[in-house]
Write a sequence for this structure.
């Protein structure tokens, strides 16, 4: 007898149904869940052709699965969990758990397979990636392809036959089209990572906001800031074109002495810009960003914008808070990363590793955000982008954002903030069930598991200043030399745990894979390339840290990266808006920590308990 079925028999919670509809209960859903789990593993391991997954099946358990798929197919694809964990292949490929008959039709095959396989981001079939140790992550692949493993000078495993090159990934493997290459007219400089240029649909919403700005006063502020340091008194300045990011609006400052920027010159100056926060950005967030930016510029060699002048108050002649900052020359790394060659990517990752080593030396005693207080910098409460989002903004819990004196307290506070937000959101949802929601189960489980992700040596500090993340849009670079010319977009930068900083950049992790069988090989090649990027980063980090911090410290940092995959996943999940949490990542984390337990059985038991686990 299936253990999942017997486990849930003790707690069948029947759901009401309309006349003429099949009545499903909790046990039915868990039976379907378990059947889908086994079927997909067998299909992928056995590389069997997929027929219609939506016909009335031949057994009771698969019957539940197929009927439920028919009901749920038009709804969200996160209706219930799917398998995640890597599993070593059997000696011989198994047959599919459901017989495939000649009379099966494939009309709904694509939709059914896409639904079933969308929940497999950590299942690698016969050549799994071992996430617990970055050095040996690709061992199964190398053995399967008969490549010979060897170690570099820093202990990183790589194959001698592929010579450190990426695998080719066809365009069809991508879920979302890559960003278009920028035109030469807009590629000359970057206004702190603009993601939308003038003329976009988002401009309409900014028109009203621009009505608050007194551009004559802004022009006067620009002249007062720039003309005092300009030796040529004949130079005049004007407010130029507008760009925007998720949180900020920028206006280029043009002068009658300006010349087109020479993009072949690494030392080319990008000029100046006015930075103004959007209406949704709180004043203290803008203030903290400018203060953090100035602090990093003064205490590291990172290429960040210089802050020339600022006014954080909206009660000023201009009408809005603003800062006058330097523009960073170069092009957005996000526009070109996928077209770079392996050697160029390795060079970029090596520079990012150097930036992280430098930031690791900006140490503080508390976790929070930098703010000005009584003429000096202090660590205030953590400014989190979620605080202005639905659910979080209505939470009444006090002091839930610190500052914190330990990593463990920070983890628990981030989880508590999401639990509070979830209560607000579910209280406004009339259709909510009496059973605990999947989100509630996830968050309460994360709370119980949080201490297992704390690195005891760094629990009580030191803590370090860093941007919200290190995604592709946080960097601008010289396309000719692949030199990073700017680290941009410091909104919601903060002082956070040391181990949060010592990780590969977020674009070397993947949270949105697709596992339709015809894309399996391409997606696997892409995921192996991501592992290579993390290995290259780790090698670069160890070399940079060795030169700056010494041999022993460099080994320690490399070890944090080597074993930090699950910690990164955990931190990403607890800091995410609860409305966008990833149930597949939750299952992967759970199964990583409970390798000898059955997830479906645990989930059934957890959901049958009272709302508080």
């Amino acid at each position: 007898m299936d253990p999942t079925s017997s486990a849930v028999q003790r707690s069948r919670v029947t759901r009401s149904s309309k006349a003429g509809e099949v009545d499903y209960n909790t046990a039915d859903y868990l039976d379907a869940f378990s059947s889908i789990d086994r079927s997909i593993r067998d299909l992928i391991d056995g590389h069997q052709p997929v027929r219609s997954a939506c016909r009335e099946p031949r057994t009771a358990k698969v019957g539940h699965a197929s009927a439920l798929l028919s009901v749920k197919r038009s709804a969200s694809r996160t209706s219930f969990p799917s398998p995640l964990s890597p599993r070593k292949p059997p000696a011989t490929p198994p047959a599919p758990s459901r017989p495939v008959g000649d009379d099966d039709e494939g009309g709904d095959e694509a939709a059914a397979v896409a639904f079933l396989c969308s929940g497999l981001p950590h299942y690698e079939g016969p050549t799994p990636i071992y996430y617990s140790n970055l050095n040996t992550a690709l061992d199964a692949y190398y053995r399967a392809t008969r490549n010979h493993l060897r170690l570099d000078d820093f202990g990183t495993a790589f194959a001698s036959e592929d010579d450190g090159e990426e695998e080719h990934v066809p365009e069809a493997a991508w879920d979302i089209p890559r960003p278009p290459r920028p035109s030469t007219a807009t590629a000359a400089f970057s206004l702190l990572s603009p993601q939308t240029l003038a003329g976009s649909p988002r401009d309409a919403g900014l028109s009203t906001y621009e009505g608050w700005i007194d551009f004559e006063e802004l022009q006067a502020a620009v002249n007062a800031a720039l003309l005092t340091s300009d030796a040529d008194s004949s130079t005049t300045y004007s407010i130029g074109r507008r760009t925007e990011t998720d949180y900020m609006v920028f206006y280029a400052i043009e002068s009658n002495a300006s010349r087109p920027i020479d993009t072949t010159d690494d030392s080319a100056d990008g000029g100046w810009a006015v930075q103004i926060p959007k209406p949704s950005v709180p004043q203290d967030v803008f203030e903290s960003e400018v203060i953090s930016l100035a602090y990093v510029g003064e205490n590291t060699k990172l290429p960040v914008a210089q802050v020339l002048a600022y006014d954080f108050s909206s009660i000023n002649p201009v009408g809005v808070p603003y800062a006058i900052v330097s523009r960073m020359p170069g092009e957005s790394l996000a526009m070109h990363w996928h077209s770079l060659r392996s050697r160029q990517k390795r060079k970029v990752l090596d520079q990012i590793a150097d930036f992280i080593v430098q930031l690791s030396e900006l140490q503080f005693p508390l976790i929070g955000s930098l703010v000005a207080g009584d003429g000096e910098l202090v660590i205030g409460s953590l400014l989190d982008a979620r605080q202005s989002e639905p659910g979080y903004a209505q939470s009444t819990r006090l002091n839930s954002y610190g500052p914190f004196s330990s990593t463990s307290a920070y983890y628990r506070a981030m989880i508590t903030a999401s639990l509070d937000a979830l209560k607000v959101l579910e209280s406004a949802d009339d259709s909510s069930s009496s059973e605990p929601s999947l989100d509630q189960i996830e968050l309460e489980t994360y709370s119980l598991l949080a201490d297992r992700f704390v690195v005891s040596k760094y629990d009580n500090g030191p803590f370090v200043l860093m941007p919200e993340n290190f995604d592709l849009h946080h960097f601008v670079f010289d396309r000719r030399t692949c030199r990073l010319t700017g680290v941009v977009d410091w909104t919601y930068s903060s002082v956070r745990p040391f181990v949060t900083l010592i990780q590969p950049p977020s674009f070397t992790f993947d949270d949105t894979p697709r596992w339709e069988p015809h894309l399996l090989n391409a997606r696997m090649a892409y995921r192996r390339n991501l592992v290579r990027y993390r290995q290259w980063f780790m090698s670069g980090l160890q070399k940079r840290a060795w030169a700056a911090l010494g041999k022993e410290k460099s080994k320690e940092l490399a070890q944090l990266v080597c074993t930090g995959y699950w910690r990164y996943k955990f931190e990403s999940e607890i800091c995410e808006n609860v409305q966008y949490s990833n149930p597949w990542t939750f299952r992967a984390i759970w199964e990583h920590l409970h390798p000898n337990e059955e997830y479906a059985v645990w989930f059934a038991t957890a959901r049958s308990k009272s709302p508080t686990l």
